[in-house]
Amino acid sequence: MKLKKGDLVVVLSGKDKGKKGEIIKAMPKEEKVIVKGVNVVKQHQKPTQTTPGGIVEKELPILACKVAVVDPKTGKATKIGYKKDSEGKKVRFSKKSGAVIESVAIVSK
Predict the structure, then answer these.
(1) Which CATH number characterizes residue 102's domain?
(2) In contact, 90 and 102? CB cutoff 8 Å
(3) What is the pLDDT along the chain (109 residues), one digit of tens a residue?
């Protein structure tokens, strides 16, 4: 799976088709990702000693094949490839524009 936490993705199919969001969690073994603001459901939760009860909205996992990374230049869906940069480091790039893709999680560190 070429998707990573922090990537900006667009949903390709389903009820949230066309929505964009950031990957909160990637689960490579299950081939699923959790995207912020996508596949949101309401869940009834009992109160505990630390949290109050009520109806809570949360994101559920979505299949990785139903999302695509957003191209940094065009803003449209693209596939990901790997290549080595000038320093010999392995980087991800957009197949459409050739631009290097950097996830937000790596940049913010």
Answers:
(1) 2.30.30.30
(2) no
(3) 889 999 899 999 999 999 999 999 999 999 999 999 999 999 999 999 998 999 999 999 999 999 999 988 888 999 999 998 888 888 889 888 888 887 665 555 4
